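User: I'm preparing a small set of examples for a lab meeting where we compare how different chains pack in three dimensions. I only have the primary sequence for this one, and I'd like the structure in token form so I can line it up with the others. Please keep the answer compact; I'll paste it straight into my notes.
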Amino acid sequence: MRAVLRLAWRDIRRAKGRSALIIAMIGLPVLVISALLTGYSTMMVSPREGVEVSLGRADAIVRPSSVHGPVAQEPLSAWAYHAGLGNRPSEPWRPEEVAALLPPGHRALPYQVGTTEVRLPGGFEALDAVEVDLRDPLTDGMRTLVEGRLPAAAGEVAVTEAVLDLGVRLGDTVPVTRQERPATVVGVVEHPQQPAADEIVSLPGLLLLNPSKGLDLGFLVDTPAPVTWQDVQRLNQAGLGVLSRTVIMDPPDKPSRSGYAPGYQLGFALAVFMVVLEVVLLAGPAFTVGLRRRRDELATVAAQGASKRHLRMIVLADGLLLGGLGAIAGGALGVVLALVGTPFVARLGTPLGPPEVPWAQVLAVVALGLVSGVCAAVAPAAQVGRESRSARQKAGRPVLGAVLVGLGLVATALVLQSDAVFGFRAREWRDLNDVLVVAAAVVVVLGVIALMPWLVVRSGRAARRLPLVLRLPVRDASRHRVRTASAAAAVMAVTAAALAFAIGYQSNHMGNLANYRAGAPLGMMMVNGQHGVATWERVRAEAEAQLPGVRLVPGMVALDAEDRVITFSMPRTCSGRCKSYGWHGEELPMGDAALLRLFQGRDDPAAAAALSEGKAVIFDPGVLIENGTITLNGYYRYDGIADPVRVTLPAVRVTAADPAQGGAVLPASAVAAASGLKVAEARLYGMHVPADELRLERNLMAAGSADLFVEHGYPDPMPGQLWILFGGSLVVVLGGTLIATRLAAADWRQEQSTMAAIGAGAGTHRGMLAGQAGFIALLGTVAGTFVGGVAGAALAISLTAKWSGVSVYGPQGYFELPDHTTFAVPWGFTLAVVLGLPLLAALIAGVFTRRPRPALTRRAT
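Assistant: Understood. Below is the structure token output for the 861-residue chain.
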């Protein structure tokens, strides 16, 4: 074995260019994955790692909830929650009430966190706010002073560097809160785990307006004894939320939830397999070319008595050494780059924890790179020692490939029909189904890889119809089918993955778009008073001031005796075929003829007359109107009280501004009469899309409890990600194609010299390289289109199946029938991948190639 490794090492040093290429191909994926693993481990701060930042030197953080009574909380959070009137606090907490519940001998330091607004040159900006005395030893480790000093008096603040980037300078006086309280910037601090945080810090009483009302009240608490989980639960019964250092370091046992574990593990294994497969396919041609160059050396070794097994070990040793070098170098560089680059990435807004290297995972990735190198050398090693040269030129019968493709197609069909075949309920298997579809597609990919040498030879037979400059490279590619098949298979695999994802995504998007029913006309805005009339007059005045020239139509809400808001929705006749509402859910507007005209986009005297007569005007064709009436379900929008009221109203159906629009407009007086509720104005509607929705909503919320909704239609969350995927495909396709083309050019040196001697110019040389690259890329993308189309169609069925609610009896019991599915192809993306990438590969190979060396001539001596 030592001699075998020595021979392999000598060949690596002799062919430095080819060796560096293989090392780079193997090491690059290892570098990327190692860097991601290390960066993720460093950026993901565990509660134990962040305990000093969260608590300083305190034993616990105590936060009163909005009620005096039992609450629940997660062990690693101080925020408590409860069922009941969540937005209507009972009597406000007072500091002495909190102190009475804590153990004797404790020390409490006021500590509030929230959001405040600071007036900057561009207007008010919302910043994270902390009110605490950072000079107190209890806060050691919570923030780091970078410049200046810590706030020491009322009216002084410290800010983070991200706030300085907004135009604030040390020594400036800035107005804070809507009351524009003056605050002098005396220092610059840094959040140790969030360097990019937009944060402002002051002593208590400046930034947050409500601590006296118990809404932002909180304390850092130093206790004589550790605060255990039992102590936390005792304080929960009184209405306090507690984050305890002892609980963070030793959390109570919680039941594990691993419902998605099988699908996640299978998906991760498939991703790893595809990465290894892609590396093997890209590096394989380089090993094949190296084998041909070493033919004389291997023949000499065989003449010294080496067997076929010894020769194959020499070739596999190349893979072992090159794979080991690439994997070790990639892993080491990945870890170093992650540790060096994570602090800079954190400046973009990601968390930052202590440097951490997940050695077990990194070493597993390094081992995977080593295995990839050995696997890439397996096919060339298998060719060593074959006696018949003509046998290597025969493609053989594609039995294995055809069997694998067939098995993959059958597996795909079985996964999609798992309900009927295996008796699985579709809704229970829906998440795992997507992963199983991908697994079946991987079998098809393996089948096409096995078919690729046969496809290369078959494609080469059509070369006789091509012009000379294309016929020669196609025949050469067919003659060296192993090298060509590996590169084309690499292109096929990435093309299949890209198209499968694109078709699945596009189908899912078009299905969701078809299933979307807008609750209002496109471009309609609604200002909603969250808690009814309590702050509505201020909200309305702010809305009119912020939206000059916009026609605002008032809307009504129903209120119970305690002025809690009740909203209404409609029962619909559809089951699995229901269109889903967007915008403001299924909450129905109440108003007069002016509001109806806004929703219909026109004057409709008949509909207006029906509304004035106390009839609900319905736009949704899926709503059931029985005997001219409809029953509405009323519920509390902001409070957790079940089933408060049901109202039956006469109803008519009309068309809205958009035929696809749903919803309704309710007559306020009829709702009040039928339900016994009060009605009052607490909404404004208008046909207007604000230029800065977030800023407008902040201004409204500062005036009172309000939120803003704008109907934009169904959102497309991933339009740019398809082209990011195209960019990734471009890198792999060009990489695999140009590597194979470069290796082919190295093999053509003698042929190129001969052709140059008989008059072939540089254009012929460039045309041949372009033809070689285009042939490899086109063969791969066309084969990938087949695999990606199959996998994409299967993903589309799995992602977009709408279930009818009808069950039938099959061989394995009852299963649910699908109502319909959506299949859509992103044609622009598909054409760019299938045709654009081969053309680009051919262009790059032809333009950026070097002129061939001058032909050798025989001179008289």
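A couple of notes for your slides: Residues 238 and 568 are 35 Å apart (CA to CA). Residues 308-346 form the longest helix (39 residues).

User: Perfect, thanks.
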